[in-house]
Amino acid sequence: MHSQTVTPAFRPARSLLFVPGNRQSWIEKVHGYSCDAVILDLEDSVPPAEKEKARQIVRSAVSWLAQRGARVFVRINKDGAAYSEADLSACCVSGLEGVVLPKPEGPEDIRAARGLLESIEAGAPPSQMPSLIPTLESARSLQFAYECACEERVVAIFGAVAKNADVSRSVGFRWTPGGGETLYLRSRVVLAARAAGKVPLGGLWQQVHDLAGLHASAEQNRAIGMAGEMILHPSNADVVNDVYSPSAEEMRYYVGLLAAFEAAAREGRASTMYEGEHIDVAHAETAKQILAFGETKNLKENS
C-alpha cells in the first residue's frame, strides 16, 4: 500500500457522459462526441447478468479511449455496504482518470473504497492513481457533503437530484422542472465542495430529448456555482458545454473589467467604476479565473 495518498488535480469538465459498460458499440463512438469526459458505467445501466461482460469490455475500453484523447472515468457497483473489488480490479488500468462512487452513506464509505483501491494498485506510481468522485444520493450523504468532499483522492462531488431516483426517495421531495424543491440540496453540494477546495457537479437531466428544459436546468445549476454536469445522452453535451462556457459577451465584459482595474492600479487606485459598477481586486481575480477557463475551452474546441 502507498505510504502517502496523493489527491490528483481535477481538470475542468463541463459535461461527463454516462455510457453503459456492456455496450461496446456505443463505447466505440465516444471519441466522436463533444462531451468533455466519459463515465463508463458498470452500475445501474448494466443488467446483473451483463456485469462480468461489462467488466471485460470496460477493462479494454479505458486505455483504448484514453489513447484517443478521451478523459475516462468508471462508475462501479456498491455490493451492499462495500464497493465491488471485481469492478475496481477491472477498471484500474492505464488511462483511467477516476472512479465514480455511487451511493456512499458518508465519508466512511469513501475511505473504505480508497483503501480497496490502494490495495489493488499497490506499487503503481502516484501519477497513475485515479481520483474519486462520490455521488451523493441519500439524505445522510448530503448531510455529510463537506466531510465527503474532504476525503483524500476526492476531486469532485456530484449532487444527484434526478426525478424519482435514489435521492428523491431518500429525501422525499417531489421533483418539478423548475427545481425549487432541490435548490437547497444542490446549494449544499456547491458550498461543501467549494469549502473543501473540490469541484461541485450537477445533473442528471432525465428528459434527455427536452433540450430546452436541460438548458434551463443547467443555467440554474451554473448560477448557483456548479462547475459541470453528468449527462445521459450525447445530444446533451453541446447544450451543457454551452451553458458552462463563458459566452463571447462574458469574455468581452471580463476583458474590459480587467483592463479597467489594471488602469486604475497604475494610477495608484485599488478600485474603480466599470460599466456603472464598483470593482476592486476581488472582481479582477474573478475576471482572471473566468478568462483563463474561457481561453482553455476555446483552444480545445478550435484545435
Describe the structure.
- There is one protein chain.
- By secondary structure, this protein is of the alpha/beta class.
- It folds into 2 domains: 15-243, Phosphoenolpyruvate-binding domains (TIM Barrel), CATH 3.20.20.60; 248-302.
- Helices cover 45% and strands 17% of the residues.
- It contains 12 helices and 12 strands.
- Strands 9-8-7-6-3-2-1-10 form an 8-stranded parallel beta sheet. It has a two-stranded antiparallel ribbon with strand order 4-5. Strands 11-12 form a two-stranded antiparallel ribbon.
- Helix 11 (248-266) crosses helix 12 (281-302).
- The model has no long low-confidence stretch (mean pLDDT 90).
Query: How many beta-strand elements?
Result: 12
How many domain units?
Answer: 2
The main pleated sheet reads as: 8 strands, parallel
CATH fold label of the largest domain: TIM Barrel
Task: Say which CATH homologous superfamily of the largest domain is assigned.
Answer: Phosphoenolpyruvate-binding domains
- Overall residue-averaged pLDDT value: 90
Q: What is the strand arrangement across the widest sheet? A: 9-8-7-6-3-2-1-10
As a whole number of angstroms, the C-alpha radius of gyration is: 20 Å
- Count of helical stretches: 12
Q: Given the helix and strand composition, which structural class is it?
A: alpha/beta
Poorly predicted runs are none
Describe the structure in brief.
This protein is an alpha/beta fold and 303 residues long. Helix content is 45%, strand content 17%.
